[in-house]
Design goal:
alpha/beta, Nucleotidyltransferase, domain 5, 2 domains, five-stranded mixed β-sheet, 20% strand, binds adenosine-5'-triphosphate, kinase, protein serine/threonine/tyrosine kinase activity, cytoplasm, zinc ion binding
């Protein structure tokens, strides 16, 4: 089976072809890069309307050149969660493409796709999943036919919390890679210094299985206003935020008895986060996997891969029931493609 996936929940217009027979994924993406500030929903939607037809055309042309006119067996699209104006453009494109190609339509939950791609690439059987993305942060575990939310942010997504600080200090979007670079530079300079790195005391908020990032963004902004060196703030921000995620991930492993952890989402590209999670898993004899970067940030490859599993399970959508859902939660999705598995 070959599935054409389309992603466009927020900033990344992306199309992909997944060939299940060879397990190969071709991805074409065109990111929206705001001139200043964060992601503006209207500008992001304007970007989607221009970029989606182009990335779809590139993938479809490559697919038909290799496999002929029947190159695509199904069209999968990110149905939510995300920005409504962007999702509607992607939904319209997917419906019309499925109609033109006369193939089934598959509606994919973007957050479940972030996590299923880790399960797919790792070959893990039944992992706990940590999604560390821009607009979200949650721990998921599979139980009784669904991905249950074991813990989640009570306010901002993890990437958005970091980006809030970088906007405050005037850095362009996305801020996460710049915080990572500044923290690494600060750490290596501090290592050469006899006193070592200074860890600022920032709010560390974990309540049961949930966590909060809004206080830490504000405290980091206040520290910048008070003249604390930016590298020290970036280092401290990462250490606190990633320790919160690692603590809750460890508790999720402990609660479920799972011995596999997969990481997903754009923030998962951060080396320090992966290092902390890998060390925690190592200490408890659990296996850890984070897919390669092209499958971590928003991408249509993960939509096409999960779309293929759903299509194979007959989990397709009639056009009349294919409305997008900006608040689509992962635990709303009946997991049709893992039949027979339960925790
Ligand atoms: P969601 O998937 O929840 O809809 P999103 O659409 O914002 O979120 P993602 O691609 O998952 O998209 O994540 C983007 C986020 O990842 C941004 O907030 C960005 O700052 C962050 N990010 C990217 N690279 C890094 C990095 N190296 N370290 C930390 N954060 C990073």
């Amino acid at each position: 089976m070959r599935v054409l996936g389309i992603e466009g929940t927020a900033w990344c217009a992306s199309a992909a072809l997944y060939d299940a027979e060879t397990d190969s994924v071709l991805i074409e993406s065109d990111p929206y890069e705001p001139d200043s500030g964060g992601i503006h929903p209207r500008e992001a939607a304007e970007h989607m309307s221009e970029a989606i037809p182009e990335v779809v055309d590139r993938v479809l042309t490559a697919a038909e050149a290799e496999h002929g006119p029947d190159a695509v067996d199904a069209v999968a699209f990110s149905r939510g969660p995300g920005l409504g104006p962007c999702l509607r453009i992607v939904g319209t494109a997917a419906r019309s493409l499925a109609g033109t190609l006369d193939v089934p339509l598959v509606g994919v939950n973007h957050m479940v796709a972030h996590l299923e791609i880790g399960r797919h690439r790792s070959g893990f059987d039944n992992p706990v999943c940590l999604n560390a993305s821009g607009a979200n942060a949650h721990l998921l575990g599979f139980h009784d036919g669904r991905y249950r939310v074991l813990g989640e942010t009570m306010d901002a997504g993890v990437g958005n919390a970091i980006d809030k600080f970088t906007r405050h200090v005037g850095w362009s979007h996305p801020g996460g890679p710049k915080v990572e670079a500044a923290a690494a530079e600060y750490t290596s300079e501090a290592e050469a210094d006899a006193d070592g790195a200074d860890l600022l005391d920032l709010p560390y908020v974990v309540k049961g299985m949930d966590f909060s990032f809004s206080g830490i963004s504000s405290a980091a902004n206040d520290a910048a206003d008070a003249g604390v060196p930016t590298g020290e703030i970036c280092f401290s921000l990462q250490e606190h935020v990633f320790a919160m995620l690692t603590e809750v991930a460890e508790r999720a492993l402990s609660l479920t008895g799972a011995d596999e952890l997969v990481l997903g989402g754009g923030v998962a590209q951060n080396d320090r986060l992966r290092e902390m999670l890998a060390a925690m898993c190592d200490a408890r004899d659990a296996d850890f996997h984070a897919p390669e970067p092209r499958f971590l940030r928003d991408n249509a490859g993960m939509i096409a891969v999960l779309g293929a599993k759903m299509a194979a399970a007959g989990d397709t959508l009639p056009i009349a029931e294919s409305a997008v859902d900006p608040n689509f939660r992962p635990d709303q999705v009946p997991v049709t493609w893992r039949s027979g598995e339960s925790v």
